[in-house]
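Incident log, structure service

09:12 report received: a user says their structure output differs between two submissions of the same chain.
09:20 pulled the input from the user's history:
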Amino acid sequence: MKTIAKTKLIAFLEALSDDYRVVVPLQQGTEVEMGELDGGRLAVGYRGKTRFSAKECLFPESEVMLTFDNRGAGAVETTEHTPAEKTAVWGVRPCDLAGMATLDAVFLSPPVDTYYYARRANTLLLGLNCHEVGTSCFCRSFAAGPFASSGFDMIFTDVAERFLVESGSEVGARLLEQHGELFAEAGEADRQEAESLRLAAETAFTTTLDVPALLVALQEAFDDGVWEEQAKKCTLCGTCCIVCPTCHCFNVEDVRKTRKLFQRVRYWDSCQFTGFTRMAAENSRSTQGERWRQKIYDKFVYLPAVYDGLLGCTGCGRCLDLCQGNINIVQVLEKVSHGH
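09:34 re-ran on a clean worker, output below:
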């Protein structure tokens, strides 16, 4: 374990920028959002979580996959846009690191998504543990926080005027050694302080979810009226999916840019949108209740069935914070778990 003074963090990040595009939490008015390194707005000691998750660093909201250029006489030049830029993301909360593990399972399982793979292989994850728990956070219910145990190259813990730092990969260990002049050895007192912060954070949660009970209850709740009941509050905006660190649905569209130039674009989609399952003949989920149920079952039934028990929720609480219909997913799922 190492330590780094908060006053030296910007020097470390700027050093990384020689080889990486550096993405960090930035102060945006009263919110904190991920963006490219800007020392003047770097939220060094920010509390809580960023408004949106860091998943866009691995899975962009929109990306050009292919370009088709009609050269005439039947000749079409096709260019594949494989991501090649190296990116370092500092300040990723444990709930978002857990979300990236879900994305890895989905996109890196056969058949491998080559676009995601290229971006993931070039991304350095520098996590930041939570020692203050928000009222909407329930990551401990999924063992996804408040402290991270895996899924990072380096993990930082905020302790007063310094960070405690540990490596989680060979790359992380090399960086600590390479920039050794910025770091100091941690002592036993530092380790004890980090452990005290972890224990205090784990007992601070006011929002919890009985996940084992939920997984059992969902086996019998498919036709429960709770889905249509909650759907009455839903505005169909898709915010819950947009801010979720694990949601990964997308659409692919060929877009005409000029008379001869076309782009194949991938962009985020949401199972909460009316047209998500619309086909020529019918819509297999024609009611919002069916779509709301799909979201829950995908996260807690379908995903774990396919990916060895991996759940599609990390308890980050963003859907509680930003739902336009003021739906509290934890309260809904607790009702399901305990038979209303």
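09:41 both user submissions now match this output. Likely a transient worker issue. Closing.
09:42 reviewer note: The mean pLDDT is 94. DSSP finds eleven helices and twelve strands in the chain.
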